[in-house]
Task: inverse folding
């Protein structure tokens, strides 16, 4: 008997899961005993339940496996005490034809079982964790030596059972951790792989091919594209796919820094270098050391700051405001802008030498109106993000929703699409996406604007640097001007208030007025003959 137990230990020691162990155990034991099937049932204690978790059988018995595996039985406290008392004795039980009144423990057997079965408990000496059942192909009672073998077999079989349960628990915890990670990513506005870019196999395929070419080097990258096209997303993709992925990724909006604070923000300052500098502070360049510095809206950088920035690109050293010692930095520069820097160089509002330094490897991102095939995937992505952000049941766009979205010109590009999907999710209250309603405020104007934009798009280059006057005329400013004018027409010149243009455009009224002044839009031309102080 000892040799048989050693062979059994060898079989269970070379397999990880019970689904792999049981067939091998069945083949081994069939060499010595007339067995048909083996079942393993797990006993859960809170609440007390017994259920089948694994099974091995001969071919003629395989048809009944599914019905037996579905059997689940809730136990009473009295029945659990009977199981514990039987386990303490460590004695196998033989039953005939399913329930046997002489052994109360046999109620844990599935009622479908007929024939002769031998039950052995599994687990530590003090704690019953399961039961293994052997169907015997015989009518005569087992000899004492045979019963003793199955009692001794409980040790290697218990070891296999516990190992299987531990692996199952580890997998459960791994799935839970993965779900928590994906939930955290969705709450942060990201789904799937963190460096995945929506549309990288569609409308951004050429862009991502250029990204792949430049990730292994440290040359400066200049990303060009209209507002809202995803320049920061592409810059993060360059960073996360490069050797600097473990370093910091620092984003700086050059247009949001007051001119008098640019030096201190970019290069840092020493204590006492100016009024209010009560302590030393590292600038953005130092914070990005070893990683990537993303300078968004580089076209907004004043000429004075451009000179100092150029020196950093040339020498790799900075000096803090009020400091005397140069500080070496190791930073990869990625710049982005929606402006036509080549035209700015010609008008001397952007330094030519800095332009040549930044434009070593330009990447042009196409507007959303030129990426129609990406809209379904983007809409799906934003719908899932909205469900998490607003604690709503997830709803996805229908075919008609996608068709409607693909007709819209999207002057605000992907950023505007995300806002529309957010609005549609809120309006739908977790039951549907109200895409038509979310876009309905523009019904009277956006379709004609869409046709105009489509004509413009057909004439505009999809990639490369804008260098001629015709391309400049069809810039983002002109698209933005047409969009603002269509909203002002809809609101009859009203800017503020819940029904004003600023509310519909989701921007501050002061920001809208400043934008209108820049674009030379006269709001009074759209006032429908009424006077309103809030306009």
Result:
């Amino acid at each position: 008997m000892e040799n048989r137990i050693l062979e059994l230990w060898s079989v269970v020691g070379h397999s990880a899961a019970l689904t792999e162990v049981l067939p091998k155990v069945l083949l081994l034991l069939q060499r010595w005993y007339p067995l048909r099937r083996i079942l393993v049932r797990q006993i859960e204690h809170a609440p007390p339940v017994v259920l089948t978790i694994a099974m091995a059988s001969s071919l003629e018995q395989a048809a009944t496996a599914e019905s037996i595996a579905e059997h689940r039985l809730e136990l009473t406290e009295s029945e659990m005490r009977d199981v514990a008392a039987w386990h303490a004795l460590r004695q196998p039980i033989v039953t005939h034809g399913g329930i046997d009144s002489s052994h109360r423990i046999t109620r844990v057997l599935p009622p479908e079982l007929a024939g002769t079965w031998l039950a052995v408990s599994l687990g530590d000496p003090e704690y019953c964790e399961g039961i293994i059942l052997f169907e015997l192909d015989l009518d005569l009672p087992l000899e004492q030596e045979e019963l003793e073998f199955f009692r001794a077999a409980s040790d290697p079989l218990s070891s296999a059972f516990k190992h299987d349960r531990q692996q199952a628990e580890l997998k459960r915890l791994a799935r839970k951790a993965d779900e928590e990670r994906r939930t955290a990513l969705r709450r942060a506005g990201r789904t799937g792989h963190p460096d995945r870019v929506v549309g990288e196999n569609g409308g951004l395929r050429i862009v991502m091919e250029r990204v792949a070419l430049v990730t292994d080097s440290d040359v400066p990258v200049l990303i060009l594209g209209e507002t809202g096209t995803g320049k920061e997303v592409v810059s993060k993709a360059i960073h996360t796919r490069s050797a600097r992925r473990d370093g910091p990724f620092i984003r700086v909006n050059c247009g949001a820094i007051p001119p008098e604070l640019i030096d201190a923000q970019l290069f840092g300052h020493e204590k006492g270098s100016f009024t209010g500098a009560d302590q030393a502070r590292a600038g953005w360049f130092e914070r990005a050391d070893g990683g990537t510095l993303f300078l968004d809206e580089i076209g907004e950088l004043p000429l004075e700051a451009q000179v100092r920035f150029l020196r950093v690109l040339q020498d790799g050293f900075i000096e803090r405001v009020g400091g005397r010692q140069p500080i070496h930095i190791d930073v990869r520069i990625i710049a982005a802008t929606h402006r036509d820097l080549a035209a700015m160089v010609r008008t001397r509002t952007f330094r030519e030498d800095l332009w040549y330094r930044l434009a070593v490897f330009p990447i042009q991102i196409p507007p959303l109106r030129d990426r129609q095939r990406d809209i379904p995937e983007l809409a799906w992505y934003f719908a899932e993000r909205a469900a998490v952000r607003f604690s709503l049941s997830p709803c996805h766009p229908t075919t008609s929703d996608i068709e409607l979205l693909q007709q819209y010109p999207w002057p605000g590009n992907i950023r505007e699409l995300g806002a529309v999907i957010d609005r549609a999710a809120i309006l739908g209250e977790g039951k549907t996406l109200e895409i038509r309603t979310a876009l309905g405020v523009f019904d009277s104007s956006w379709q004609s604007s869409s046709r105009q934009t489509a004509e413009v798009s057909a004439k505009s280059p999809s990639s490369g640097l804008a260098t001629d006057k015709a391309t400049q005329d069809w810039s983002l400013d002109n698209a933005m001007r047409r969009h603002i004018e269509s909203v002002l027409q809809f609101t009859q010149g009203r800017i503020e208030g819940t029904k004003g243009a600023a509310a519909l455009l989701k921007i501050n009224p002061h920001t809208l007025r400043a934008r209108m002044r820049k674009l030379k839009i006269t709001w009074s031309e759209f006032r429908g003959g009424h006077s309103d102080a809030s306009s």
